[in-house]
Specification:
about 260 residues; alpha+beta; Beta Polymerase, domain 2; 2 domains; five-stranded mixed β-sheet; 12 helices; about 55% helix; about 10% strand; globular
């Protein structure tokens, strides 16, 4: 895990030996990176110490960035987000699309055998409930693009809106979320990088009008809803099985202390 671990060490995370999974996320993971316009997003999972997992003071996550809170990230910036195994499992069980990416990010990941144990049981986490999450995130992106909703914590992307008239990067992510939802509901998996890479880059590069994007988003939203209704996935994640799995991983990790 040395390549990505160098960034962890730079961040000051105090127990890098507890990390069981690291991967590059964002546009690079999705296959929609364009040149050198994007920052580097790194995500990971760590196993808490016994006193943190069982005691009164828990450790949910660690977040670090080279950017400040008052500006949007540039191409030279790095964002690092590490979740405790327990916190990540909570998010994944709810169907959070970003958390589910952890299970399918083989192309950009560096992991230990403990994470491979989690990954080999990924079906515990997959459910129809994730469609609601994906549709919600995609809908938020659409409403921000059209101005029906706030523009996010760090404002708009003038580098896209000033050229194309709307936030084409947000549009790309909106369509990606619908496509991931459709695949997950039908096949029980999320392909990363996305097989629609050229399609997504075309949208991001401003080759679509706002009207064409909105028409496509509406079509994919309806397709995703239909896929969720017809899906053979379990209605909700198997909480009992997930609980046993993460307990097992913690116990194995603690025996190695």
């Amino acid at each position: 895990m040395r390549r990505l671990m160098n960034t962890v060490l730079q961040s000051g995370f105090d127990r890098p030996q507890e990390i069981i999974h690291l991967f590059i996320g964002g546009s690079e993971l999705h296959g929609a990176k364009v040149g050198t316009t994007d920052d580097l997003d790194i995500y990971g999972v760590f196993v808490c110490q016994p006193e943190e997992a069982l005691g009164l003071v828990t450790r949910k996550h660690f977040v670090w960035s080279t950017a400040t809170d008052d500006r949007r990230n540039g191409p030279e910036d790095i964002d690092l987000t590490l979740y405790s195994l327990h916190r990540w499992a909570q998010l994944a069980a709810k169907g959070n699309p970003t958390a589910l990416h952890f299970l399918f990010a083989d192309a950009t990941s560096e992991s230990t055998e403990l994470w491979q144990l989690i990954q080999s049981n990924k079906n515990f986490f997959l459910s129809k409930q994730s469609a609601e999450q994906c549709l919600g995130f995609a809908g938020n992106q659409r409403r921000r693009i059209t101005g029906e909703q706030g523009r996010g914590a760090k404002g708009t992307r003038p580098e896209y809106e000033g050229i194309y008239g709307y936030d084409t990067k947000a549009a790309m992510h909106c369509l990606r979320l619908y496509l991931e939802c459709i695949e997950l509901m039908r096949a029980g998996s999320i392909t990363l990088p996305r097989p629609e890479r050229e399609y997504l880059i075309e949208v991001r590069s401003g080759k679509w009008t706002l009207e064409k994007f909105l028409e496509e988003a509406n079509k994919l939203e309806n397709e995703a809803k239909a896929a969720a209704q017809e899906s053979l996935l379990q209605d909700t994640a198997d909480i009992a099985a997930i609980s046993r799995l993460i307990a097992k991983v913690h116990l194995i990790a603690w025996k190695q202390l």
